[in-house]
Amino acid sequence: MKAARVSFMQMMLFIRRDMMLFASCAAPLLAGVFFRFAVPVMERALVSWTGRTEVLAPYYGLFDLIFSMLAPIMFCFVTAMVVLEEHDDHIENYLFITTLGRKGYLISRIFLPVVIAFIMTVILLPVFKLTALSAVEVLLLSGTGALQGIIIALLIVTLSTNKLEGMAVTKMSTLTILGAFAPYFVRGRISYILSFLPSFWIGKTIYDHKIIFMIPAILAAFLWIYILMKKFLRKLS
Predict the structure, then answer these.
(1) How far is CA 119 from its chain centroid?
(2) How do the domains of the chain map onto residue ranges?
(3) Contact partners, residue 73, CB within 8 Å, separation at least 6
(4) Is the pLDDT of residue 220 over 90?
């Protein structure tokens, strides 16, 4: 574990020197400020302009849901870019024969960033939330958001061979969060066409106010992670 911790700190120093990656880590905080303060102002302006009783308010839960995924997605994107650069330079082959090993490498590049993102979300979500979320809901959203981040990171490192491809795959992989929009904008059984996405069930949890939907969300997420992790380990071997 010590080797994994040292490797993680070395990765953080590398990220600190790359301004694009460093700025990506700050994105959740900036987005949280925007969601919490700008969105209500926009809601009041739109209500005044349109004469309706509410415009954005019915989607406040969706804003909270997106924010719960944002920190894990951005953190995992950053670490995925590091993994791709190390793979392109064949650095991971040298790391595997050190005390770090393959297990320590996965811990330092995926597990620790996700844990930090989870903690960050647990702290920031109650500060920036737009709806009334219980402590249990905050923990569940933070946990499923972390799982979504792992899925996107594994998609990036599995389907890409370098950072340039990784940027393109990132745009494609973020489409996996679109399932969260389905309960809000797609009516009827046709929405279940996206039920293979964990984000779909997370969206239903918030939209229908039923925590029971977190069970298929977590199961779907673990299935995605299991399949993608096998492909990633095969790529590393």
Answers:
(1) 13
(2) 2-236
(3) 145, 148, 149, 152, 174, 177
(4) yes
